[in-house]
What does this fold into?
Amino acid sequence: MKKIFLVTLYLLVAAFAGAQTNTELKTLIKQSFGYFPRIQELQKASETSELRIGLARSNYYPVLSANGAYTYVTPLSRINTQNGELVFQPNNNYDFNLSLTQPIWDFGKTNAQIAKAKTDLLSATTNIEQAKAQVAAQVANVYYAMVYLKKAITVEDSILSFLRENKKIVESRIKRGDALQIDITNIQSNIDLEENRKVDFVNSLQKQKALLDYTTGVNTEPTSGDFDFPAFSEAPVMDYAKQNNFDLLLANQRTLATEMDLKYSENSRYPLLNLIGGTGYKNGYQPSIQPLIFNYLVGVRLSVPIYSAGKTSQNIQISRKNVEASQLAVKTTENNLRKDLAQVQADITSNADRIKNSEAQVKYAREALVLTESRYKQGVATHLDLLNASSNLQRILLNQIQFEFQLCAARIEQARLLGWKYWSE
It folds into this structure.
C-alpha cells in the first residue's frame, strides 16, 4: 500500500522536473496545420491577396484592344459639283482597328493600390499565423488536459486499491468480531463514490481524445506523463509581445491599409495622363469611299477632374476617419494585450506558489497516513481515522495535479499572447 503512494508521489514530482519542448506535442501541432480546414481556408485567401498585387500592378501596363464595327447609314449626305455628285460616306461603313492606351502619369494612384494590396497580403499571412497559434494552443491544451486526466485516473486507481485492500482487512476483522458491519458499508460507499469520480475522469479523457482527433486527425493519447510545456524565458515580455502578438500585428497592418486608402483618395484629385494610339482599316475616305484604307493615330490624353459633387472630398474625409479609428484600435489592442499578459502572469505566479505549497502538504499528509496506519494496526486509531488520512493525501495529490495543469495552461496562454512559435523551436 505504501508503494502505491510512493509511486504516485514520484509521478507528481517528475511531472514538474523538466522544461524541455515535447517532441510529441510539436508533431501533433504540425499535423493540425495540414489538417484543420480553417488554416487551409486562410491559405487560399492569402493566395487571392497575392493575385491582387498583380492586378494592381497591371495598371502600369498598356491596354490593347481589337475593335470591329459595321454601320449602315441612309440617307447619305450628297452635293452636286462640276465633276458630278459627291457622297461623303458610303451606306456600308466598316472600321477594323487595334487601339492602345498606355498610362504615363497617374500621380501615385497605382502605387497606392499596389501598397494596399501588399498590406492586404501581409495581413492575410498574419491571419494564417494567428490561426496556427490558436490551433496550436488548442492542441496543447487538449494534450495536457489528457495528461492531467490520466494522472487523475492513476490517483483514483490508487484510492480504489487502498479502499479495496482495507475492505478485505475489515471483512477479516468482522469475522473475528473486531469490527462492525457499518465499517464495511462506509468503505463500500467510498468505493462507489471514487468509482463514479473515476468514470467522470475517463469520460472527460475520451472527450478530449475526440477533440484532439477533430483538431489533428489523429486518434491518440499522450505517451508523455509530464506537464513539460516550456516556460518563456526572454525578457522584457511586453517588448517581445509588441513585436510578435498577432492581434497587434493585424491592427498595425490595418492601419497601414487605411493609410494607403487615404493616399489613393487624395490622389484621385489629380489628373491622369495617357498615351493613346491605334491602327487598322476603315472605309469612307475621299475620293473613293468604298475601299478599306489602312490608318493609324498617336496622341496623348489628359483627364483632369473638375467637379464630382463633393464625392472626392467625402472619400478623403472617410479615409481619414478610418485611419484615426484604426490608430485608436492599435492602442486598444495594446492595452488589452498588456492587461491579458498581466493576468496570465498572475495565474502563472499563483499556481507556481500553490504547487510549492502543495509539495509540503503532500509530505505532511503522507507522514500522517503512515502514522495513522501504524496507530490503526496497534488499535489506537479507528478505521475512520485511517480513511480520513488516506482521503486527505489523495485530495492533496489531485489538487497538486490540477495546479500543475493550470500552470501549464497559463503558460500556453502566455505563449499565444506573446506570439511565440514554440512548435517550430
Notes: The chain is about 65% helix and 15% strand.
